[in-house]
Structures are given as C-alpha cells and as structure tokens.
Amino acid sequence: MQSRPHWASLSLACAFCLALIGSSSAIAQPTGPQPWWPTRPTPLPFVHSLFTSDMVLQRDVAAPIWGWSTPGDVVTITFNDEPTDQPAKAGADGKWMTKIGPFPAGGPHKLSIAGSTQRVELTNVLCGDVWLCSGQSNMNWPVRLAQNAEAEVKQASHPQIRSFTVGFYPSLVPLKLPPPARWEQCTPELARNFSAVGYYFARELNQTQKVPIGIIHSSVGATAAEAWVSGPALARLMPEDFPKELADLKQQAGDVGENYDHFAELEKWAAKVDPESAKKKYTSDPELDTSDWQEIDVPQPWEEAGLGDFDGLVWFRHHLEIPAEWAGEDLLLQLSVIKDFDIVWLNGKLLASSQLKGNTRNYTIEGSRVKPGKNLLTVAILNQEGPGGFCSMPSNMALRSVKRPAEKPLRPAGKWKAKKSVSITDLSEPFPEPKVGHYKTITGLYNGMIAPLEPYSIKGVVWYQGEANGPRWLQYRRLLPTLITDWREHFQSGEFPFLIVSLANTNPKQTKPTEPGWAEIRESQWRTARTVPNTGLANTIDTGDGNIHPPNKQEVGRRLALTARHLVYGEKELIYSGPQFSCMKIEGPKNDRIRLSFTHLGGGLAIKEGEEKLTGFAIAGEDKQFVWGNAVIDGDTIVVSSPEVAEPKHVRYGWAWNPLVNLYNKAGLPAVTFRTDE
C-alpha cells in the first residue's frame, strides 16, 4: 500500500461534505481503478510498523508488541539493554507477539528486538499516554489550516508530543498493516501537518499532566460511522440496519480473509492466462531464449512499434545496468505512461503494479533489492482498447537515486524485447482487482485504518465525527455505542475512555424557533456520553461561526483536554462542561411557564459576556408548535414562558444548525443544546 499525502483527506472533505449536509441519500461510489489502490507489495515486517524510533509506548501497562518472522523463531526484546520478561516465539503463520512493561512515564529509551537472523533497534522511545484520534474532516484538519496557523506552527516544538498518521485505505477485508507511516516528533516542520484537534489536545495534556503524549491519527473526511465499525460487530449488534450493505460487501470481498495477498493473486493470474510465461520463467530467467520475441523501440504505442493492432497481454523484457555506487540505495523507476494495466518484476520478484490507465508509473525500488550490474526488468502490460504499452516520451523513462535525485539518471528507453500473449477477447479471467473500496464502503475504514493498529495499547480515543450521519441521527444512538464497544473489544485495553466532540454550529444563523439540521445528531452524541460508561463530551456549539470546518481547533482541543482531565486524570473538582439540562417542572398560577434545572453549573448560570438577554429557547404546548420563548435565569434554574403558549409542555434550546445560543456557566463553558421532549 502507499501512504496518503496529508492533503488527500482534505480533498475528500471538500468534495463531499456539502453534499452530505441535509441529505440522507448515499453518494455514488466510483467504479474502476482509484489512486488509493495499492501499487507495491508490502511484506510482513519483522516488527509491526507501529513500532518505530520516536514512538510513544503506553505507560503503566503491559503493552503488546508484535511482528513476523520465520515459524519457530524466538524473538527477544530488551529495554535500555535490560531483557524484558518474556521472549516470543513465531507461530506457524510467522507471527510473534509478547508484552513489555509496565514502564513509567519518561524517556528517551532504547528498545531492541532481535530474532535469529534479524535485529531492529528503536531509539528516542517515550513512555506516556497514547490517544487514538479518529473521525472525519474536522479531525483531519491540519494545524497549518487552523486558526493562527503561522504563529502556531512556529511555536510547535514539543519534544514530548509525537504523532503517527494513518493513510487513507478503505479495505474490504481486515488488514494486518496500515499504509506506510512512522512516528513523527512535534517540530514546526512536521507539526504543521498534524491533526489540529489531536495536536491541541495533546499539547494541553502534556502541559497539564507533564507526561509524553502520542496521538495516532486515523481519520477521513466525509465518512460515516459505519465505515469505521467491523463487519462482525455491525452484524451482531445492529443486524437489522445494514443487511444489504453487508451482503454487498461480502459479495465484493469474496471468500478471502486477512491473509489475502493481491500481488500473489496477480502472479497467479499471469501464470494462468499465459502458462508459457510461468513455464519458461519470463520474469526470472536472465538467459531466456528470446529468439521468438520482437525487438522494439520503447517508449511508443506498440501498434507503432511493430506489434500491430492488438488488444491484450504483451510481455516486455529489458536489462538495467545499475552502477556500483547505487548498491543498497533506494531507487526511483519511472516507466512512462502505460496503457492500460501493468505488472512489473525485477530479477524475478514482483516490484509493482498499477491499473490507472494512462498514468505515469513511478515505482520505488527498495535498497535491499538493488544490486550493481545487470538486472532483469520484466513488464507485463494488458491493454483493453486503443493504443497499448509505453505511451510517452523517452525522457519520461528514468532510473535515479532517491538519495541523490539531481544525479544523472539511467535511461531505460531504447531497445526492449516484446512478446504478444493472449488477446483481450481470449482472456480466461479478468485482471485481478484489489480488495479495496471507497470512503463510503461499510466497514472499509475499520478494515484498512483501525484493524491494522490493534491491539496497540492506548489510553483512550478522541472521536470527532457525526456530520455524515446527521440525517440518520436516531440510528446513530445505537451506531456510536456499537463502534465504542467494537473498538474496546478489539484493542483489548479494557473499557478505555472515549471522548466525543459534539458538532459545532454551521450554516446561516437560526431564524426560526426550531430548524432541521444537526440538533438531533448532537443530542445522540450527548445521549451516548450519558449512557455509555467511561465516555465524555466536549461541547463546541459556539466555535463554528457557520463554518463547517471551524478554524478554532485550539478551543476544541482545550475542551477535550478538560474532559480528559476530569474523566481520566483524576481532576474531579475541575469544571469541564457547560450546563447540562437535567429536569423540568411546569409551574405558575396558571401552569404557564416551565422551570429548567441543570447540572454542571460551574459557579452558576450566566449569559454570554456582552449580551443581556438569553436567546435560543423555544417553547410549545402539546401540539409542539414551537415559538420563541422568554427565558430568564432564576438562581440555578431558568424559567421559560411565552404569551403565545397558554399551557406549555415542552422546551427546546439551540435546536438548529447554527443556533442563537448564549447560555454558559461562570467558568465560560457553553450549555449543551437539548429538548425536554426527547
């Protein structure tokens, strides 16, 4: 798999967020090859890719650590050159796993992992608290696009904060590895691309708790919650909600599991559709008799190079003479524009493959595969229609050092050997597609961006999502608790804290007493925080100012940290929430007013500084025809009435996309929006 650029999720957000607002209809998913499809095989590493230098290891717990080796291999681990308690033994599938710790907060430390033939040494390792930050575009929003970006980036030097960003990958099956990434230190150069919410949350905790903080950032813009839940959990806990989607997913994925290897399937496909290629070792025999192959000039469409008007599979072979000074270095292989699909081998081992028609192929050759001298490059190209093969200029074919990109490259353009194989009409089976979906694929983001992280030890989760589920707010009351249960089961870290960001105000200001919008999804978020153990809510109803991507991520991070400090870090006297509605009473000589009581008074109820009258309250009788209410603070309660409603029964507060709300406590935290007629 390839890692996602930091802008990729933002592109998804910009493209799809507005379409999601106020619409429950599903967006049509694209068909055919997509830029996020994998192009290179990823061998299972000796140590899982979550364990790198600069990482944060969860403190005060026995933390799992795992990887892959040869079956039966004994793996030992040392921490600061001291052996840990238990070595690990690789099973029949090659996987090894053990636990290390508990270690107190601190560092930097050295972590060494050694097998019989492999050794990895990780440096600058910190022990602290690891928070998984997930959701959609507002979690994905980077520091460089948030409020006061230039000043914040310049000051983003925090040695005890680290981030691991998971790339976009919507898999149809659970994966063992996330897209390539590594832990990054918090420096101005790197922190500019950190999740802004994650970073400001981490900064607050680091400053108040004096412990290292690691954030694992795994989010994608415009995504619905069901994309982040495992298939078995949806089937078990919500069997009536997604039967068609789960059935479609099963049909797409086929009878494969987490051990599915797309690139192994490509090699099987090539051998099946052209058995002669496997028998004569087209990809690996440097001395293959090619007397029945044609010598053609590359690059140019094969119709012009002498292969005739042919749609189907064509094999190409070429020898690269790699200079001695490049031995062991990563190289970049540029193979022109290819039409349509290609599979590339180097010295008999599959290197890469792409199905993006008409795109320039840029493939990295890892240093471990680079040997000086003669190297065999084999390319199988399947063309479906139109010009086929290498279809660009000679200057677009190159092999160069990644380390020294300005150095003169090798030019693979020139004479190549080519052999026509099976025609497109005689192809026995189609070119294999990877088991990859789209950002809307049910369970897809769990499979590709959460499952590969499990069971890494975490302190808790920060969740900023709900926009895409707004129209299905009632279902969300069950869906979000299902996600929480699912993740807690899979991470095996107990009933860890789960912090929820209540959606900010967006769209034009409220003009009617009640309006359709996000009020109900906010209610479902609050309901989850009230009913699911060890969860908390950060209310951001006043941070949006109509913007679907509010730039003030600092306040979001601060309020999340307040919730964490109370819920997780033992600051029980800390005021961490604005007023929350608790109960109502109809009163007055004529039962013509409603008295509202609240928890989380935070020193007392208050009107937003600079304003004189409470706003945002609506009142209705049994008919639920809401009108603006007159609301006044009376001690620790609020009394609401209206001359238009003689016998009031219900009150709503902040019931709109962008409500006119100004109720706070004296600690400066806004009231949670609510309705008494839930």
TrEMBL record:
<protein>
    <submittedName>
        <fullName>Glycosyl hydrolases family 2, sugar binding domain</fullName>
    </submittedName>
</protein>
<dbReference type="InterPro" id="IPR005181">
    <property type="entry name" value="SASA"/>
</dbReference>
<keyword id="KW-0732">Signal</keyword>
<dbReference type="InterPro" id="IPR039329">
    <property type="entry name" value="SIAE"/>
</dbReference>
<feature type="domain" description="Sialate O-acetylesterase">
    <location>
        <begin position="445"/>
        <end position="561"/>
    </location>
</feature>
<feature type="domain" description="Sialate O-acetylesterase">
    <location>
        <begin position="129"/>
        <end position="231"/>
    </location>
</feature>
<keyword id="KW-0378">Hydrolase</keyword>
<feature type="signal peptide">
    <location>
        <begin position="1"/>
        <end position="28"/>
    </location>
</feature>
<dbReference type="InterPro" id="IPR036514">
    <property type="entry name" value="SGNH_hydro_sf"/>
</dbReference>
<dbReference type="Pfam" id="PF03629">
    <property type="entry name" value="SASA"/>
</dbReference>
<dbReference type="GO" id="GO:0001681">
    <property type="term" value="F:sialate O-acetylesterase activity"/>
</dbReference>
<dbReference type="GO" id="GO:0005975">
    <property type="term" value="P:carbohydrate metabolic process"/>
</dbReference>
<dbReference type="InterPro" id="IPR008979">
    <property type="entry name" value="Galactose-bd-like_sf"/>
</dbReference>
